């Protein structure tokens, strides 16, 4: 492409809220044939709400105080939703004295002398905690598209909370557009398989890779590249940064974290996934490669 057509292409993309880091990225995007979409905050609004509470060891208020205290130090959208939901229930949340985030898994904190773990089943497995008596409830919640967050207190399973996130209004249409462009679309998430499959079905995405840790997301990108694919990764979170940097084209949402934006080649200013198709169409146009 000529410098003039690159200038024109970048300008038109910018009008659509699609910012290319440079001309090189505008030229490269037309080669993409696989698009990986992060779930939370990308396909969904990333503003989940606390919907269910199951306390198995103590009463619900005591349980939620500990969960809230542990999550208060986390910047994860799930944690923010859980803390907000607990506060809305009029429960006073105590301070945690020690806090540690375990990326893609959850948090660990000490609250009123008790060690509290909040997060995925992998987090429970890592600490040898058996999750008992709630298997059917977990399946049911996950099949409805909710994310289940497990909690343990002093090494024993204490209960769970569930959060529901809404799919962005534009996601389904944007996915259909990507498929029309001949692209293979895959949902790539750190969330569990059942929840991910429900969200994928509701959005028209045919393939799902679930339970992916941040480095696991980058590995999926490399695996696809080794098969000759040109991969676009779209994400919003710190957990997406390694995959965004590894992908042939990393696309961050302007609504996402600074870490994701600086790891990406393209920023989609509005959170709307139509920006992905806009970016690829603009690149194809610029490269005179309209399919
Ligand atoms: P996604 O790929 O959907 O954006 P993440 O990689 O950020 O998700 O997180 C993967 C999973 O780890 C989440 O679905 C959640 O179950 C769990 N998790 C991560 N951080 C937290 C937290 N602070 N509190 C509870 N669960 C968490
Ligand atoms: Mg995300």
Automatic annotation (TrEMBL):
This is Copper-exporting P-type ATPase. It is found in: Cell membrane. Involved in copper export. Belongs to the cation transport ATPase (P-type) (TC 3.A.3) family. Type IB subfamily. It comes from the Bacteria. The chain holds residues 450 to 740 of 795 of the full protein.
């Amino acid at each position: 492409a000529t410098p003039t057509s690159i200038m024109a292409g970048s300008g038109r993309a910018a009008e659509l809220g699609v910012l290319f880091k440079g001309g090189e990225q505008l030229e490269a995007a037309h080669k993409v044939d696989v698009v990986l979409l992060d779930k939370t905050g990308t396909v969904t609004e990333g503003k989940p709400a606390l919907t269910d509470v199951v306390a198995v060891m103590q009463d619900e208020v005591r349980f939620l105080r500990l969960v809230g205290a542990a999550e208060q130090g986390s910047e994860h959208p799930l944690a923010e939703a859980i803390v907000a939901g607990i506060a809305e229930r009029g429960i006073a949340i105590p301070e945690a004295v020690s806090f540690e985030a375990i990326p893609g898994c959850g948090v660990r904190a000490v609250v009123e002398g008790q060690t509290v773990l909040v997060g995925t089943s992998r987090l429970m497995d890592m600490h040898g905690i058996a999750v008992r008596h709630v298997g059917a409830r977990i399946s049911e919640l996950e099949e409805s598209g909710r994310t289940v967050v497990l909690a343990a207190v002093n090494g024993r399973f204490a209960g769970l909370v569930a959060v529901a996130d809404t799919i962005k209004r534009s996601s389904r249409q944007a996915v259909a557009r990507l498929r029309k462009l001949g692209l293979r679309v895959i949902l790539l998430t750190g969330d569990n398989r059942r929840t991910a499959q429900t969200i994928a079905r509701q959005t028209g995405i045919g393939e799902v890779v679930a339970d992916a840790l941040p480095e696991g997301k980058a590995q999926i990108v490399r695996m696809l590249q080794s098969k000759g694919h040109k991969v676009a990764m779209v994400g919003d979170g710190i957990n997406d940064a390694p995959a965004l940097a590894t992908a042939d084209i990393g696309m961050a949402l302007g609504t996402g974290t600074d870490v994701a934006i600086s790891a990406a080649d393209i920023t989609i200013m509005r959170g709307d996934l139509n920006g992905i198709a806009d970016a690829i169409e603009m690149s194809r146009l610029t490269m005179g490669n309209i399919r």
